[in-house]
């Protein structure tokens, strides 16, 4: 039934009773409660460097919101190294960049997924100038349109310290979640990310501690906190 999704990485879908899935649900609940007066609807995941778990976390978080019945759009805004389509085994022939250049209406480009309530907009063709097109008026118009159609819009992004794209996207998001990889992310890098986001007046909702090995099992868990 779920043969089209990457079974080992979309754990929130294929093994929703696991402790990792429970951690994703806790993250979702915390996000929902962090904005009672000012609901958080557009959220981006960021981290200092590549390989820290942004894509894995955002994909599972999107699944978790969809399981809750929220109409969810997952957008691959990592126009440097797109990978969300690989996790969901979808074609990336057209995607965000096509929607930005109005090649097609975004409604025609968005993928439905095997998961009810979850839609996916892959990155599309890699452009030569990602920062520029992400800061375009068209991009903010698209986000406004998505807000009409979806309850939650989640963005995957490239590493924040490497390129300006994450900072640009943070201005379009109600909230930002920082992924930190245990044993890899340097304290100084995480601090740098937080101070850049603070400078941009982004609302940092919390951090996810990825890859933390637990003594009792060989798995991983996600921590959450301010
Ligand atoms: N909690 C985890 N447990 C095991 N492997 C993980 C976990 N988080 C990420 N990975 C793996 O680490 C690699 C990098 O993760 P990814 O989500 O692509 O990071 P990023 O998007 O930050 O570059 C991937 O191969 C992914 O499957
Ligand atoms: Mg990634």
UniProtKB/TrEMBL annotation:
Keyword Endoplasmic reticulum: no
InterPro entries to which the protein is assigned, alphabetical: AAA_dom (IPR025669), Bact_polysacc_biosynth/exp (IPR050445), P-loop_NTPase (IPR027417), Wzc-like_C (IPR005702)
Gene3D superfamilies: P-loop containing nucleotide triphosphate hydrolases (3.40.50.300)
One Pfam family linked to the record: AAA_31
Residue spans crossing the bilayer: none
Keywords: ATP-binding, Kinase, Nucleotide-binding, Transferase, Tyrosine-protein kinase
ATP-binding keyword on record: yes
Top-level taxon of origin: Bacteria
Any one Gene Ontology molecular-function term assigned to this protein's record: kinase activity
Domain named AAA: residues: 41-196
Catalytic activity, as annotated: L-tyrosyl-[protein] + ATP = O-phospho-L-tyrosyl-[protein] + ADP + H(+)
EC number: 2.7.10.2
Family: Belongs to the CpsD/CapB family.
Protein name: non-specific protein-tyrosine kinase
Record lineage: Bacteria, Bacillati, Bacillota, Bacilli, Bacillales
């Amino acid at each position: 039934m779920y043969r089209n999704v990457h079974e080992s990485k979309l754990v929130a879908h294929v093994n929703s009773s696991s402790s990792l899935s429970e951690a994703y649900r806790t993250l979702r609940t915390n996000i929902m409660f962090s904005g009672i007066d000012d609901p958080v609807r557009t959220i981006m995941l960021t981290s200092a460097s590549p390989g820290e778990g942004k894509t894995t976390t955002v994909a599972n978080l999107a699944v978790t919101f969809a399981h809750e019945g929220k109409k969810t759009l997952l957008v691959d805004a990592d126009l440097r190294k797109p990978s969300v389509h690989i996790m969901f085994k979808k074609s990336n022939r057209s995607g965000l960049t096509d929607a930005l250049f109005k090649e097609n209406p975004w409604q025609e480009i968005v993928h439905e997924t095997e998961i009810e309530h979850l839609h996916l907009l892959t990155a599309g063709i890699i452009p030569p100038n990602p920062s520029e097109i992400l800061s375009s008026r068209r991009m903010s118009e698209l986000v406004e349109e998505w807000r009409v159609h979806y309850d939650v819009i989640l963005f995957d992004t490239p590493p924040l310290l490497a390129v300006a794209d994450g900072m640009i996207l943070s201005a379009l998001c109600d909230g930002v979640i920082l992924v930190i990889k245990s044993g890899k992310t340097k304290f100084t890098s995480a601090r740098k990310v937080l101070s850049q986001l603070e400078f941009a007046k982004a609302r940092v909702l919390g951090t996810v501690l990825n890859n933390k090995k637990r003594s009792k099992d060989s798995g991983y868990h996600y921590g959450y906190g301010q």
